[in-house]
């Protein structure tokens, strides 16, 4: 899907790691949420509350998920992070992403 129709976009940006990771929240009519963002090169640790589907639109990164080994993810690929978990990213180049929060 290249666009989202009939949604609400939260004006205030989500800014993490001194601006190296930013996103905007998109809210759908059914109440579900996604964030659309950009990650600059660097190493980051994130914590989840909900289960998350991370779709990498473009870019290149490595992800370390709980109980797994490092894996390389490129544009067009995705990965799922469990709820209430911590995961690490090594972003190798500017990465465009879409994160869906799954219930």
UniProtKB/TrEMBL annotation:
Source lineage: Bacteria, Pseudomonadati, Thermodesulfobacteriota, Desulfobulbia, Desulfobulbales
Enzyme class: transferase
SUPFAM superfamilies noted in UniProt: RmlC-like cupins (SSF51182)
Alphabetical list of InterPro entries matching this protein: Ppnp (IPR009664), RmlC-like_jellyroll (IPR014710), RmlC_Cupin_sf (IPR011051)
Record's GO cellular component terms: cytosol
Keywords of the record: Glycosyltransferase, Transferase
Domain of life according to the entry: Bacteria
GO molecular function: guanosine phosphorylase activity; purine-nucleoside phosphorylase activity; thymidine phosphorylase activity; uridine phosphorylase activity
Record keyword Chloroplast present: no
Family membership: Belongs to the nucleoside phosphorylase PpnP family.
HAMAP family associated with the record: Nucleos_phosphorylase_PpnP (MF_01537)
Name of the protein: Pyrimidine/purine nucleoside phosphorylase
Keyword S-adenosyl-L-methionine on entry: no
EC number: 2.4.2.1, 2.4.2.2
Entry coiled-coil feature ranges: none
Catalytic activity reported: uridine + phosphate = alpha-D-ribose 1-phosphate + uracil; xanthosine + phosphate = alpha-D-ribose 1-phosphate + xanthine; adenosine + phosphate = alpha-D-ribose 1-phosphate + adenine; a purine D-ribonucleoside + phosphate = a purine nucleobase + alpha-D-ribose 1-phosphate
Role summary: Catalyzes the phosphorolysis of diverse nucleosides, yielding D-ribose 1-phosphate and the respective free bases. Can use uridine, adenosine, guanosine, cytidine, thymidine, inosine and xanthosine as substrates. Also catalyzes the reverse reactions.
